[in-house]
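Q: Two folds, back to back.
A: First:
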Amino acid sequence: HPVSAGCQTSASNVWPDPRLGPELAFDDDPKTRWGGAPDSKDGWLAIELAEPKTFSRVRISEAYDRIQRFEIQVQHDGKWRTIHAGTTVGGNFSATFDPVTAQHVRLNILEATDVPTIWEVQLLAE
C-alpha cells in the first residue's frame, strides 16, 4: 500500500483547462493525471507526507511516454538529494533503492519531448 495517500502535493506548474493538478498523480486513481503547463518540457511533482515515512520503492505511470530524463529526490535540511535517476518512464515504471526516510519527495522531470503528464506516483515501503 502506498505511503503517500492523503498528503499535500505541489507541482512546478499545472495544465490549466481542464485543471490537471498535482493531487491527481497521488490519488490512487489510474484514470486521473497531473499535467504540466502548456509548452513545458520539464517540471516537478512533489508530495509532503503527513510525517516522515520510510520507503524503498517507487512506481510511476506516465501518459504518452514523453519523459527522457528524471530524478526521484528527497529533501533533507532544505536540500534536495537524488535517490534514483533514470531516462524513460512509460506506463509501468518501477525502481527499488536502499530504504530512505523522508517527508518531502519529488519527481523532478529534467527533460521531456512534450508536456509531462503523470497518471500516478506511488511510494512503497517494500
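A: Second:
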Amino acid sequence: MTSRSLGSWDLGSALMTAGTLVGTAVVYPRLPALVPIHFDIHGHVDGVAPRLVGAWLMPLTMLFLGVFLHVVSRRKPRAERAPMALVTFITMALLAAIHFVMLRTALLGVLDAGLAIGVVLATFCVALGLAMP
C-alpha cells in the first residue's frame, strides 16, 4: 500500500462519513423546521437549530475532522498511524451514531433520547478502551 492510498481504517472512516452525508440528504426534506442538536444529562432535548444547521453540522464536522486527521496522520511514522486510524474510526462512529440519534429524534418528534444516547456513549467508551494499549 502506498503512502497516498487510504488504509482500511481511513477507508472505513471515509465510508462512514459519506454514508452520513448521503443519509442526511435522503431524510433532509422530511426533517422539521427545528432539529435537536443538544441533549441534557437525562437525554431530553434542550437545544435546537434550524433544519439547515441541525441536519448538516455533524456530517460536515465529520468530513472536516476526517480530512484533518488523515492529513495529520501522514506526518507520523507508519507504526503510529494504525492506532490513530483506529481511534479516528471509533470517533467517526460516535459522531455518526449521535447524528443518527439526532435525526431519529427530529423525525419521530420525541423529546427523550436518553437510552439511545446512553447506549451510544457506553459503546464508544468500551470500543475506545479496547483500542487503547
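Q: And?
A: DSSP finds four helices and two strands in the chain.
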